[in-house]
What we know:
Layout: H1 13-39, H2 43-56, H3 60-75, E1 79-85, E2 91-98, H4 105-118, E3 121-123, H5 128-136, E4 140-142, H6 154-159, E5 164-172, E6 175-184, H7 192-209, H8 229-242, E7 257-258
Antiparallel strand pairs: 1-2, 1-6, 2-3, 3-7, 4-5, 5-6
Helix pairs in contact: 1-2, 2-7, 3-7, 7-8
Amino acid sequence: MPPPPSKAEIKHKAQILDYAIQVMQDLILQNKTIKMDLALTSRESLFVWVDQVVSVSTNFRDVMRSFMELFFFKRDWKYGEVWFPDTENALALQYSFVSALVGNPTIHAKIDRFREVSQPMRFTPGEDVAGRLWISTRPEWHSPISDTRTFARAREAQACGLGTCMALPLASRGKMNAVIMLFDTMERIQDDNTVLLGMDVSARIGVVCGFVLPGTTASSAPRYRQSSPDSGNTAQAGRARGATFVSCPTPPNLALVSNL
């Protein structure tokens, strides 16, 4: 175990234990970031990383956590959501994650507030960002988040200090399974490379999981095989969709359904 920082005194067993835990957490984070760095060196390495993530995850939430961490640690996004259809076929917020790198307690509290107000909301296919992606399977980029006609939660997002949203489809074998949203507190210029990265990762997850529903075991899903014709087509389709993403389209209807 490395020595404590200079001028730091560790005298009691509880302090030693806390320090050991912190060191272990730092090592785990360092190991994760090294694997992510390697994953980003090539598309093949990225797919290998996704395969490994799925193989060691015990449920789909863990898979999504790793997806979010890639964009938190390597692309500096601050908050992420995963929307699934509920029993009434309306899209509902199933998972949400805040980046561990959000150290400012005020920012963290605002993101938590946005998560709370989003939790009861429901969007039917075709309605708002999640509903549009469910129909189009095309990613969207919103910056600034200011127009309630294209982003129903725009006022809540602005009040909570969020400036950009990137939304991605998660599909398997040509069928939509979920909608992923990433948020930043800054206003970001539309970035094709980031969208393509997100599309590649989400397409690969769809191929490898094939598809695992929330709460089920990810490791028991069918494994990807390089020779599978469906797997190659899915990855290529994801990349093709990423090359034609849309920015803040105006839908014909934005009915917001609240689960109250």
